[in-house]
Amino acid sequence: MPELPEVEGYKKYIDNTVLNQKIKQFDCRDNRLLKASTEDFEKYLINEELTETVRIGKYLFVKKTGKKILVIHFGMTGRPNYYKDEDERPKYGHIVLTFQNGFHFAYENKRKFGWWDLIDSIEDYKEDRKLSDDARDLRLKDFKSSLESRKTFIKAVLMDQSVAAGVGNWMADDILYQAKIHPKTKAQDLSEKDIEDIFKAMKNVIEVAIKNDAHYDDFPDYFLIHNRKEGATCFHTGGIIEKIKVGGRSTYFSPEWQKMKE
User: What is the pTM of this model?
Assistant: First the structure.
């Protein structure tokens, strides 16, 4: 699933391809991908221009010259594709915008778990869905504050989008690995230093992932992502990586490196 780093890459891609071009046509092959009517998308997109993108977690907001803001969620397999010739439309390009210059913008989504929506306000949307500030922009004091009343496992807390919008499963595992925190540590049992270490690791995971365009093979050797499978070898200890379930999600950690607090 595209997570924060991948969606940041998609944001840059859109910024560099489709902004400030007049939309002449909107086409959707599967209306299940639309959270508003086709008529509304045609009304609020055709003859307008996309002007600016804003990313909060895994949500991409695209501002326009007219009313309404476009929201894009990439689901499991979504991605953008800007192309010239009509016959180059990708197989899974279920939604396509055609611009006045003759180029096209396809929203590819093989498994159809993503969607488009039209909204009036980013702030209202963020509040309605209880999204925190984007994890990349999150401040330490706000992160600490969001953990104060939490009594569940820190792995589950990290993946709560009201705590750190954009942090997904592999990211949470790597954050805790780098912070040397066991994923089943209760948030209430974390020391102030633990929280600061987690916050620092979160920022590092995000920046490294974005810098490397989410190409995992290019991440530093100490990242868990290289050995994130059951029975693999811990980079730090040479011990075995184990797999457990936390909050219903598969979780990988190094028991020797991430010891449970006593």
Answer: 0.93
